[in-house]
User: What shape does this take?
Amino acid sequence: MKLILTLLLLALVPAFSAPKAASKLTPEAAFTKTVQPFLANNCVGCHNPKNKTANLDLQQFTSIESVRSNLKVWRKVAWKLEQGEMPPAKFPQPKAITKKAVLKWVNAELADSQIALK
Ligand code: HEC
Assistant: This one.
C-alpha cells in the first residue's frame, strides 16, 4: 500500500512541475522579471504617482509584498487585462504572450488569497 502511494505521488509530481517557462520562476522572481517590467512598459505612463490616472498608481508596486498587501487593486488589474481594456485601445499594446503570463501570475496571487473568494 505504501509503495503504491509513493508511486502515485511520484507520478503526480511532474504534473505540478510541468515545463512552462514562467512557472520555473518563483512568484517573487516572476514579479521582478515579468510583472514589474510589464507595468513599467505598458501602464505606469498613465498610472504613476504624478498622473494617477483613474486614481491609480501602479508604480507603487515594487515588490510582491506590496502586491499582496493591496490585492483589491490587483483584482481590478486582472479584470482590465482580461477584458482587454488596458492599455486603452488607442495606445501601444503589450505582446499577447506577455500579457497572458502577467495575467496568470496575478490570478495565481489572487487565488492564493482570501480576497479572491469574496
Ligand atoms: C494611456 C493611458 C493609460 C495606460 C497606458 C493604461 N491605463 Fe489604465 N486607465 C486609464 C484610464 C483613462 C482609466 C479610467 C477609465 C477606465 O476605467 O477605463 C484607467 C483605468 C484603469 C483601471 C481601473 C481603476 C479603477 O479603480 O477603476 C485599472 C485597474 C487600470 N487602468 C489598469 C491598467 C493597467 C494594468 C495598465 C497596463 C497594462 C494600464 N491601466 C494602462 C489610462 C491608462
User: Anything to note?
Assistant: The mean pLDDT is 87.
